[in-house]
Every structure is written in structure tokens, then in C-alpha cells.
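Progress report, Aim 2. The chain analyzed during this reporting quarter is listed below.
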Amino acid sequence: MIPYTTVARGQTIIASYSRDGTDLSREVQKLLEQPYVVNEQRRMNRYIFTFCKKNNLTFICASPAESPTSYAVQYLDRLSDCWCLTLLDASKTATQNSLSNSTKDIFDAVYKDVIENEPSSEKIKREMEQTQRLMTESVQLAMSRGNDLENLSTKTEDLLSTSADFRNNAVNLKNKMLCARYKAYALYTAIVFIILYYILAKICGGYSLKPRCRK
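Predicted C-alpha cells for the chain:
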């Protein structure tokens, strides 16, 4: 639930802890370089980073974005109390990650106490929150898909309407081309007839085709 935890003095990370090997030191370093209030939460990538500032030390833990953030706050409150009680003096002069190895037991103990040994009622509440969140996301996804399907249906109808218009225009164009072709045939026939008549008139000696061609 909380894969990465850091304790910093100013912008110097003096201790870090990860139960599964997750390394978010770069993300934490970027967050430390930005202004922040005593207690706040910020989202970066797939994680929610929770801040807790106490005795000039900053305690930061990262939890998955889909996890309830209340456990992160409770975890940091307990960790900061234990840390300031036993390691406050050492933290004043600690250098970069110099306390990481010697403080694993403290991180482990607080994590097990807060996260792994949570009361049944809290566990049920957390599972209900996760279920509610998943249901909300599913409904939003379904609504989004419904909108996509509606848009697709509208586009399909528009495409069918456009296809029908195109087909009608094609039929009209075909009819116009046929009419133009028939007119051209008629014109060519008339021209040929006129030329033949002119030739016959010359041969027969007149436009009335007399006297040579008619007896």
C-alpha cells in the first residue's frame, strides 16, 4: 500500500525505505525542490505523495493513486513521532541517505503497526472505498463508451446520408451524360444528312435534285 518512504532535512534525503524495491527518490527530490505546506498531498505519475513536516524534518510517503490516502497520513504521523523521539539529534547532522540502513527496523515496525495490523472495521471501510471507487470509474467508462457509440452512430447516419446523396447525384449525372450523348448523335446525323444533301445537289444540278437525279 505504501511502497516508498523518505525522511528529509531541507532538500537532503537522509533516509529512504522501500518494502518492494520501488525507487522514487527522483520524484521525491523534485517535490522537495518545490514549496509545500506542513501537511499536504500531491499527485505525480501513478502515486500520491503525502507530506508531514515536524521538527524541521519532512516525512514523505508514496502510495498508489487508487489507494485510500487516510492510511498514508496515519502512517506518517506515527513514523514522525517515533523518529523524533529516537533519531532527532542524529537527523540534524545526517548526510544523504546516511540513516537508511540503520532505520529499516523503525520503518518496518511502524508499517506493520499501521498498515498490516489495521482493525477489521478499518479494513472493511478501505475495501468499501476501493469498491466504490472502482464502481465510479466503471460507470464513467461506460458513459464514455456510450458517448463514443452515440457519436459513431451519428457519424454512420451522416455517412449513409452522404452516400445516398452521392448515389442520387451519380444517377443524375449519368442521365445528363446520356442526354448529351443522344443530342450529339442527333447533331452528327443532321450534319451528315446536310453534307450528303449538298453533295447530291451539286451532282444533280440544283437543290431540288433536278433534272439529272429525278425523272
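The chain has two domains: 4-137, 170-206. Strands lie at 4-9, 12-17, 39-44, 47-54, 57-64. These observations will guide the mutagenesis work planned for the next reporting period.
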